[in-house]
Amino acid sequence: MPKTINISQNHQLSGLDKHELIRIIEDLQGEKRLNDGFANLSETGSNDAALMWRGRNRFLAEQVLPVKLEIVPQLSYPKNKGGEHRIIDGDNLAVMRSLLTDFRGGPNSGFDVIYMDPPYNTGSDTFTYNDNYNLSKSEIEKLKKTVRYVEKGVSLDDPSRHTKWINHIAPRLWAARKLLKYTGVIIISIDEHELPRLWMLMEEMFGEKNRIATVVWERSRKNDATYISEGHEYMLVWARDEAALRQMVKLKGKWREPKPGLDIFMTEFKRLKNIHNDDYSEISKGLKGFVKGIKKGDPLWTIRQYVGVDAKSANLGPYKEDDPSWPGGGGPNYSITHPNTGATVRTPPKGWVIKSFEAFQDLIDQDKIVWKGDGTPKIKKYLLDGRESDVITSIIQKESRQSVMMLNNLLGFGDAINHPKDHLILKRLFSVVTWNNPNAVFFDPYGGSGTTGHSILEMNAEDNGMRRFVLVESGDPSNKKIGREEYTNKLTAERIRRTLSGKWADKKDRPKLPGGFTFYSARKDIDRDILMASDRENLADIILQIVEEDSNRQDCRMDGYKYLIGKTRLGYGIALVWEKGNVKGHKPLTKEIRSKIMAEAEKAGVTKPVYIYAVANVSPINDKLYKFQQIPDSLLARLNLLEED
Length: 645
Ligand SMILES: C[S@@+](CC[C@H](N)C(=O)[O-])C[C@H]1O[C@@H](n2cnc3c(N)ncnc32)[C@H](O)[C@@H]1O
Known about the structure:
Elements: H1 7-10, H2 18-39, E1 67-71, E2 85-90, H3 92-103, E3 111-116, E4 128-130, H4 137-147, E5 151-153, H5 161-179, E6 180-190, H6 195-207, E7 211-218, E8 232-239, H7 242-252, E9 257-258, H8 262-276, H9 280-291, H10 313-316, E10 319-322, E11 336-337, E12 344-345, H11 357-365, E13 369-371, E14 377-382, E15 389-390, E16 395-397, H12 401-411, H13 423-433, E17 441-444, H14 451-463, E18 468-473, H15 484-501, E19 517-525, H16 528-533, H17 536-546, H18 553-556, E20 564-567, E21 573-576, E22 580-583, H19 591-603, E23 610-614, E24 626-630, H20 633-638
Parallel strand pairs: 2-18, 2-19, 3-6, 3-17, 7-16, 17-18, 21-23, 23-24
Antiparallel strand pairs: 1-19, 4-5, 6-8, 7-8, 9-15, 10-14, 11-12, 13-14, 20-21
The structure holds S-adenosylmethionine (SAM).
């Protein structure tokens, strides 16, 4: 059964405004509805269609074990030092659960963008699945110890291939949603193999109203196709909460990207202006020469018409001449007088595009109309008068060969991963969906060749940004080139190392980029041995991770005490006794330690009992001020791991 969600424990509520609090309540209500809906389809309260599959009614209730995140200094960059970005080697679902402590989504917390590029389930890609339906968790763990990995590739003739894929993706989508800032955006790459199922899942999990767009990336032409070349794939763009995102639009404007080629064009304009000063026709002549011969596809293509120059161009840039007639027909009809000849100007057959005579006259008075030799008017549209940016369209055409070649130049092998994404396309999207926020935080749970990280490093280098990313990669068992154990290091992390150092395989001169990353290994599920071998800091981390369902670590972690490690929003204390001693190598909870803990709790303003974690309790007093939690059993019980013994 889904747990009851305690609102006050999950978020730092003080400091939020009414609007944000309402959002949290709506979000939690939505979450509860969804849990009920998945547990029992008839409870959705909706008569509408929903995706049905074997596993639907239990996946949200299934417990995901957190994993221990261990820093690997020698694989970090700079070596042994690390940096602000994170690359994590491990299964993304378990890692996502662990990331909740630092990145739980809320009005002001969580990731700004999650980019997911899961295996597409093509029958020959990286999609593997644990096929041991009938084995218990502990049997699977035992199997892992002998064969190491229990997943198998999923082939196209597997009759339950879609079920397997949905069972893989559904909990990950749900985990991703929890990590997304309320104003955040998720972008998911997919192709026709699983698009229908993914779309339905997204509608149910994120809500139809939060769909932003479906972007089509046309990446190749398949001349050997039997019927029609299907050389494109999709990027589903959804908001966690479109209403929250709309508030951002009010503040920051609509999503736009700088007009391609704007910088190059304005540099040329300024160069010509320096030479010709106020000789507008010479500057204009220079610009016409500059854009001559520009072909479709060139970044300057959409700018090529801005070759008119006048006194206003010093501030508004060059202008283009626009047709003043109403595009569809049926526009307003009024008479205009030519300011120089006094002749009446013929109204275009479709009517004027300017809504009234007064507005047209105003343009004439402001010298924003060009009068052609035959007496017809054109409207001056200045480049820097709101035209310096473009809307992104839902079709992007770019050959995927370019990203494979780039990866080859960078790593010396471009074929270690099938279909790497194009980091320049990701850059465009990441920039637009964050209003190019230089502090945005990005998450990519299917790290692959590190394309997401590469994009962000370049974005930071271009504007001295402080964007951060977290990439997770588990290694691809089907990859013939790189072994699974080394995959994250040799592919994901290596690309980022080379991008940062500028030392590409092709040995060409490249700049160093600012930044660094810390490499984490998340290969160890938490078990009895891991708990008992942990140092105090790690164990405190694990305890706070495990209790986070009741008290989010962001809310309750406390530093600076010998025993106390946290305090929940409701005022409960959490303490850990973890010093060398005689019970299983550790000190038990004694009367003396208990008194010290109580003194710490009082100082920290703990108003409810303290949960004290220790290997044993030899404190004679048993009172209502504390609740003893035995290590490791109380933690293993929370993780449902006791049956393994
Ligand atoms: C389609 S590729 C991603 C490619 C990447 N976007 C790029 O441009 O290189 C999917 C990646 O996810 C990894 N992967 C698959 N299942 C995973 C899991 N459960 N946890 C972490 N990574 C996983 C695969 O090993 C593979 O490298």
